[in-house]
Amino acid sequence: MESYYEYRHLVGFEETNLVGNVYYVNYMRWQGRCREMFLRDEAPEVLADIRDDLKLFTLKCECEFFTEITAFDELSIRMRLEDLTQTQIGFAFDYVRLRDGFEELVARGRQRIACMRGPNTDTRPTRVPDTLRAALSRYAVPPTAGGRRVFEGVGEG
């Protein structure tokens, strides 16, 4: 069975445009919020590390839209670990509308982050913390034929 971290969201009017559908930038915002809630719920030790000197730099983020959503749509943003290297993490996001007991995939996104340390004038790549690796390992995308997953030491530590 596929495992994912879920962040639930109820769309508000402030997230829509004049036509009434959700403005695209909100999908990126929800990716960030899902990632933050994951850290709070699944890897709180990493939050202390971020307060110290760990930095999570977003290198890339994208979203593919399948259908429009509007105010008061209930969403499940489902985050999975897509790949993990020494210093970077790739996330996959499914945006699923929940309505009357049915689920509809409305968008799909990706995000890539790099772990960095050091002062702003001399920030350098650093290993993904072991506590974060362990928390992420529970949400790995299942292997697929011809897939591009890369895992180096998931769950080690």
TrEMBL record:
The keyword Hydrolase applies. It holds the Pfam family 4HBT_2. InterPro entries: HotDog_dom_sf. Its EC number is 3.1.2.-. It is an enzyme of class 3 (hydrolase). Keywords: Hydrolase. GO terms for molecular function: hydrolase activity. The keyword Hydrolase applies. This is Acyl-CoA thioesterase.
